[in-house]
Each structure stands twice: as C-alpha cells, then as structure tokens.
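Hi U.,

Before I forget, here's the chain from the pilot set. I'm dumping it here mostly so it's searchable later in email.
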Amino acid sequence: MEPANIDSTRSYLDFEGLGQLRGKAAKDGKSALRETAQQFEAMFLQQMMKSMREASFKSDLLQSDSADTFESMYDREVAMALSKRNAIGLADMLVDAQTRQMSSVKSTAEALQARAAGTDADKSKAIPLQRAASGLPLQVPVLPLSALPRPGQPIPLSTNTLLDGNRR
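Structure:
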C-alpha cells in the first residue's frame, strides 16, 4: 500500500510537511502556490464545518468531550479531502489571483534594466517630487473688533451678524 502523495502535506497540522512547503516556497514561489491554496481552503472548510456544528442542536445525552474531539478530527480530515478534490474552488480562485498579481509585479532587476534602457512604461505613473503651485490662496475673513460681542452680552447665532457688524 503506497501513500497517495508523499511530497504534499496530509494536514495543515503536519508541521514537517509545512516546513517542507515553506522551503519549496522559498526556492520557487509558484510551485508551492497550489498546495498553499489547498491548505487555506482546508482551513476555511474546517472553520465552516465547526461553525455549522456549533449552530446545530445537540442533545445533552450524547454530548461529551471525546465526541467533540472526534468530530473536530473528522472535520479536519473531511476538509482536507474536500480541498484536494477541489470541492468549492476556493483554491483555484486563490491561485488565479496570486498568479495574476505575481505576473504583474516586476522584480527589482527587471525594473532597473527597464530604467537603464529608457523603456520604463511606468514613467507616466510617476508622481512628481514637487507639487505645482495651483489653486486659490486661502482667504480668511478678518472680523472687525467692533463686531465681536462684549463680555456679558449674548453671542449671536449666525455668522452674518459677526461679518456684517449689524445686530438683528
């Protein structure tokens, strides 16, 4: 009897397998992307099943700590199996999104080569270091001292009385 896939992790709690996945991702990010997306999908599915179990009605006669432990272990394995079968397609969406994002990002070496060659297409997106002087100057109305209320007098409710100097 052969194991199904020795290189991939069997569970997201398999720390040795996750260490190997981390090493694979450090060498080549694209090769580990699919497996990482499946691990995320499995965690998502397990949390979803856990929430559904908590929301369902449970009898006190059948309730025990060992049953809860068994159910959580069962949910973990079902979630891993569903993610490997691509049951809901979350892993595919994550892989597609990350692939698009990784393809649009240039490496530092590519950006420096494009700048040196003068073919940098991102020049139009550049932000100038100094902003051009534009817009209107800020004008603050200066109130005459006679328009201000004297101590002990009521403060007018509208600003028109302060600006006009007239009391209504």
